[in-house]
């Protein structure tokens, strides 16, 4: 048990990957479990079967034999211990099981039983561990740390080692393990965890037990860095997909990243904020400044920021991707805005498909215009029509609003975004914004293929759409060559120039389409994540989109001013060869 454990976790319950926590859920059939197991053929690691109470399955022996045929090495079974006897242990060993994982979250009976939701669960787990130890079956104790059990972590490790456990895995409670309300109550604060974790590690060292820490960032207890494992396991879903169970964030400024550190997980940061992972040096620099120095500070760059609102846009390519559903806390958003102001951008651009639909969007925009000299926002804007007159008057210092258009008319727009009446509501919201002459209003069309471009151009030429023509290439697109041909057919004017601005210049030159000299290149943008400056990653409905360098060698093409190739769009093989040769 001294070697690293690389687990392929197979769940016996339907749904997302989760720890053995509380009962409930639909049980998967043996065929579904085996399908997921066969999907990772050739991937290194050992199966660990868990979910629900495996020992109560009548088909468990047959299922385990099939798994042994697929991958026999270091097969594990995760069980709460109900029904585990010496005879069962011998039977499992004869089938091919080489270790048992037993959830043991606290040495205090009331805490463990309440967390698991089963009276007597601690006695059952202790009895199962002693049975395994007496029978010579290796045991891995899985300890999920919660706020009430965190101070007793060393005591828990002490009890486990005294009953013979020699391998302990300490885990963080995640949003997948409990409901949203319980997660806030039970999740321990990472900045307060170091002392308890170090005491537990000392106890394990003294008792010669192997300790592994998973799902926590290394900065929680940097002195225990060698005990952290961010890539030691993967979770297999019922359809055979691989899920790492956690979406990692960039972490603290000195984060080593995988395979050592899991980073600051968004499920934690979205509820408790990122202050625990911020760069303290940037704060020190601002604290030492005088008021005059702050007033004379040079503003530079465009910062792009987004906050999470209710999911509205049906198209996955145009919607925003967030690890947790639902609107982001206004407290967290305000804290992010204050932190973003430390970087003194000349422009703050707020973007996203969910941005303006947030219940507190108007109040948050008001906070933004008080913090930044110039604020722009862009996204799906049908919710603006519901803002009050007071909300709009308070936003008189908002510099610009650009609304996302998913179709050139009501029928196509509403069908694509999945919001009935969205097109009409967006135009009514635009008219309300225009009542305030200080707020510039524009629009941008999100296109998935070349067929919609002429329709958008005609609608703009007839004055049916607000602002000047502007195009955004969706992340799920079609042929760039077709867009070049579309640009060729458009008459000279604003729509043609707007389309050429998002096309590779090298591809246009290859097709004999002249690019206007007035086409502006994209400005550089940056974002802020977990208290530090990072490269901005475009979201589904922002007005710019994501681009990659032209050519397979990563060096880009030789055409000056080429914006690159929009991600999610295809070029013909002929155009690719021309790019590499140019």
Which structural class best describes the helix and strand composition?
alpha/beta
Give the total of beta strands.
Answer: 19
Residues in helices, as a percent range: 25-40%
Largest sheet: 9 strands, mixed
Q: How many structurally independent domains?
A: 2
Report the CATH topology name of the largest domain: TIM Barrel
Strand content: 5-15%
**Gyration radius, rounded:** 28 Å
Shape field:
elongated
Measure the end-to-end span.
Answer: 57 Å
Q: Catalogue the unreliable spans.
A: 1-5, 573-582
Count up the helices.
21
Topology of helices and strands:
Blueprint: E1 7-11, H1 30-38, E2 46-50, H2 60-70, E3 76-78, H3 86-95, E4 99-103, H4 109-116, H5 121-135, E5 139-145, H6 153-162, E6 167-172, H7 180-186, H8 194-206, E7 210-214, E8 233-236, E9 242-243, H9 266-272, H10 280-287, H11 291-295, E10 302-305, H12 330-341, E11 347-352, H13 361-371, E12 375-379, H14 389-394, E13 400-405, H15 410-417, H16 422-434, E14 440-447, H17 452-461, E15 471-473, H18 480-489, H19 494-500, H20 505-510, E16 525-529, E17 532-535, E18 547-548, E19 565-566, H21 573-581
Parallel strand pairs: 1-2, 1-8, 2-3, 3-4, 4-5, 5-6, 6-7, 10-11, 10-16, 11-12, 12-13, 13-14, 14-15
Antiparallel strand pairs: 8-9, 16-17, 18-19
């Amino acid at each position: 048990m001294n070697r690293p454990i690389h687990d392929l976790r197979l769940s016996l319950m339907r749904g997302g990957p989760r720890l053995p926590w509380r009962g409930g859920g639909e049980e998967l059939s043996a065929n579904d479990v085996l399908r997921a197991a066969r999907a990772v053929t050739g991937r290194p690691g050992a199966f660990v079967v868990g979910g629900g109470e495996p020992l109560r399955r009548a088909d468990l022996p047959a299922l385990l034999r099939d798994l042994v045929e697929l991958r026999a090495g270091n097969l594990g079974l995760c069980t709460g211990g109900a029904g585990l006897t010496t005879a069962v242990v011998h039977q499992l060993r004869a089938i091919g099981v080489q270790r048992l994982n037993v959830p043991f979250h606290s040495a205090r009976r009331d805490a463990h039983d309440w967390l698991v939701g089963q009276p007597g669960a601690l006695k059952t787990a202790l009895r199962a561990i002693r049975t395994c130890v007496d029978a010579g079956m290796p045991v891995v104790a899985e300890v999920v740390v919660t706020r009430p059990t965190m101070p007793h972590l060393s005591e828990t490790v002490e009890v486990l080692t005294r009953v013979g456990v020699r391998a302990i895995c300490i885990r963080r409670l995640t949003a997948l393990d409990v409901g949203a309300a319980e997660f806030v109550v039970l999740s321990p604060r990472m900045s307060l965890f170091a002392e308890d974790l170090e005491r537990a590690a000392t106890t394990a060292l003294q008792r010669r037990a192997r300790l592994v820490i998973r799902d926590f960032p290394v900065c929680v207890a940097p002195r225990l860095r060698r005990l952290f494992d961010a890539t030691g396991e993967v979770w297999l879903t019922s359809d055979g997909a691989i899920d790492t169970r956690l979406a990692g964030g960039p972490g603290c400024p000195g984060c080593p990243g995988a395979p050592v550190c899991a980073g600051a997980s968004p499920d934690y940061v979205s509820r408790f904020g990122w202050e625990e992972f911020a760069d303290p040096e940037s704060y020190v620099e601002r604290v030492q400044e005088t008021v005059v120095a702050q007033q004379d500070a040079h503003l530079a760059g465009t910062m792009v920021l987004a906050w999470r609102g209710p999911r509205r846009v049906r198209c996955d390519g145009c919607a925003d991707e967030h690890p947790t559903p639902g609107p982001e806390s206004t407290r967290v958003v305000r804290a992010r805005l204050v932190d973003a102001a430390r970087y003194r951008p000349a422009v703050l651009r707020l973007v996203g498909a969910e941005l303006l639909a947030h219940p507190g969007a108007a109040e948050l925009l008001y906070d933004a215009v008080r913090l930044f000299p110039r604020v722009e926002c862009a996204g799906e804007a049908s919710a603006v029509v519901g803002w009050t007159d007071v909300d709009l008057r308070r936003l008189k210092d908002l510099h610009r609003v650009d609304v996302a258009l998913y179709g050139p008319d009501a029928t196509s727009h509403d069908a694509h975004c999945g919001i009935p009446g969205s097109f009409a509501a967006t135009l009514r919201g635009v008219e309300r914004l225009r009542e305030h002459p200080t707020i510039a209003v524009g629009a941008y069309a999100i296109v998935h293929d070349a067929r919609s471009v002429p329709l958008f151009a005609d609608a703009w030429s007839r004055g049916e759409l607000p602002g000047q023509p502007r195009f955004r290439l969706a992340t799920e697109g079609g042929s760039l060559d077709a867009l070049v041909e579309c640009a060729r057919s458009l008459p000279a004017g604003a729509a043609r120039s707007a389309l050429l601005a998002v096309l590779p210049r090298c591809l246009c030159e290859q097709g004999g389409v002249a690019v206007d000299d007035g086409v502006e290149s994209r400005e550089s943008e940056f974002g802020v994540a977990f208290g530090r400056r990072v490269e901005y990653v475009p979201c589904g409905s922002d007005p710019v989109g994501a681009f990659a360098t032209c050519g397979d060698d990563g060096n880009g093409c030789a055409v000056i001013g080429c914006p690159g190739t929009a991600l999610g769009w295809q070029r013909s093989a002929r155009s690719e060869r021309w790019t590499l040769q140019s």
